[in-house]
Write a structure and sequence with these properties.
Layout (H helix, E strand, L loop, with lengths): L7 H22 L1 H14 L7 H10 L6
Length: 67
């Protein structure tokens, strides 16, 4: 088996990249929990699901000035 030599600087960059990828993967995996929590929040307070446009239209119908 051939021995390879990797500089400390290069090894540090590789480790940083791996750590970043692990963080990205963990964020993706946790999306299910985030979505589940968002659904529960919307069930408790449906107004949270309104878009800004929908809220603006609601206010305009009630003669509230919207910028």
């Amino acid at each position: 088996m051939t021995t390879i030599t990797i500089s400390e600087e290069l090894w540090s960059r590789v480790i940083e990249d791996v750590e970043r990828l692990v963080e990205d993967v963990s964020a993706l995996v946790d999306q299910d929990e985030i979505a589940r929590q968002r659904r529960l929040d919307l069930e408790e307070n449906p107004s949270l699901g309104k878009s800004e446009r929908e809220l603006d239209e609601y206010l305009r119908k009630r003669s509230v000035g919207v910028a």
